[in-house]
Design brief:
Layout (H helix, E strand, L loop, with lengths): L11 E4 L9 H16 L3 E6 L11 H11 L9 E2 L4 H13 L3 E4 L38 E4 L6 E6 L3 E6 H4 L4 E3 L7 H11 L4 E5 L6 H11 L5 E5 L1 E3 L19 H11 L14 H11 L10 E3 L8 H4 L1
Parallel strand pairs: 1-2, 2-3, 9-10, 11-12
Antiparallel strand pairs: 4-5, 5-8, 6-7
């Protein structure tokens, strides 16, 4: 498989964990891929804490994540960016979309949307109940979300550096999606688009579980006049029952000893070893090797793969 080209401008990538718990092997795969891709290109690698969803944030999780990244030899450029400190930027972007007539208020509740049709990606498609005005029986509701008006012809396509050609009919498969929730918090899709644009991120390397979000983000980039970065969606690791390793599935935190986990992530990504076959014996040696040998063309062009050995077991399996 031939690797697709990187942006012409100097590479600027990022890693953006959510502080809902410690990093696990699935997180490590995304971090290694994004950092190695940036360093091999002679570019910058930024760190962003995605804590826009305040109710899901766990106290102390950010400190744990930063300590894990430091122990595993990750070095980011510039200060850590935190979404909780950037709500003014999200509000300004939403105001721009409102001025352009691209968003509208919605007074529907989650329960009322439980019967909405399910799109090709398994998500419920918003039926457009409030698109032309809030119905009379819902106008007295104080809490309202803001949704983007997805054009009827909004088939958004892009070429992923690993997964190839991707296209999604947003009107059919997603519908008008939320940009600000009824509780006043800005949605992930808006926050990530604003953050990437304002940080100058031009290359996004992340897990393939976010592949379906990319067309939505590209639509918002176009509506806001932002440049679209290149995308590479690496395979995600699956647990023994076929579920994605995640904090929600109780994936075990990364071990204190970083080198075996780094080596396992490198092998998971099918990356090359020295001709001698010797495994780097220190974290610093691992990263020196990663910068020199990172080969996107060798990445498995699939969205998911089983996690290796002990990393496949979740916390619930270890109790």
């Amino acid at each position: 498989m031939t690797a697709r080209p990187l942006p012409a401008a100097r590479y600027r990538g990022r890693f953006a964990p959510s502080p809902t718990g410690p990093l696990h092997f699935g997180s490590l795969i995304a971090a290694v891929a994004s950092c190695a891709d940036a360093r091999a290109a002679g570019g910058e690698w930024l760190l962003r804490i995605e804590d826009v969803d305040e109710p899901r944030t766990r106290a102390g999780a950010e400190s744990v994540i930063l300590a894990q990244l430091d122990r595993y030899g990750f070095a980011w450029d510039g200060p850590v960016l935190r979404q909780r400190e950037r709500t003014d930027h999200y509000a300004a972007a939403l105001a721009r979309l409102r001025e352009g007539g691209h968003v509208y208020e919605c007074a529907c509740t989650r329960r009322e949307l439980e019967t909405a049709p399910i799109g090709a990606g398994g998500e419920r498609v918003y039926p457009g109940t409030c698109r032309h005005g809030i119905p009379a029986d819902r106008r007295d509701r104080a809490q309202r979300a803001w949704r983007v008006r997805v054009p009827a012809t909004a088939t958004v396509g892009f070429t992923d550096r690993l997964q190839g050609s991707v296209a999604q009919d947003l009107a059919r498969d997603v519908g008008d999606f939320v940009l600000r929730r009824a509780d006043g918090l800005h949605a992930y899709q808006l926050a990530v688009v604003v953050d990437d644009a304002l940080s100058g991120v031009n290359a996004v390397v992340r897990g393939a579980d976010l592949l379906a979000s990319t067309p939505r983000q590209i639509l918002l980039q176009r509506l806001l006049g932002f440049a679209t970065p290149s995308y590479l969606h690496a395979p995600v690791a699956l647990g023994p029952s076929g579920e994605k390793l995640s904090k929600q599935t109780h994936a075990a935190p990364l071990p204190d000893d970083p080198l075996p986990a780094l080596v396992a992530a490198w092998r998971f990504l099918d990356q090359p070893w020295p001709v001698s076959g010797a495994t780097p014996d220190t974290v610093a040696a691992f990263w020196a090797h990663a910068r020199e040998t990172w080969a996107p063309a060798r990445l498995p062009p699939v969205p998911m793969l089983p996690a290796p050995g002990s990393f496949a077991a979740g916390a619930r399996d270890r109790v």
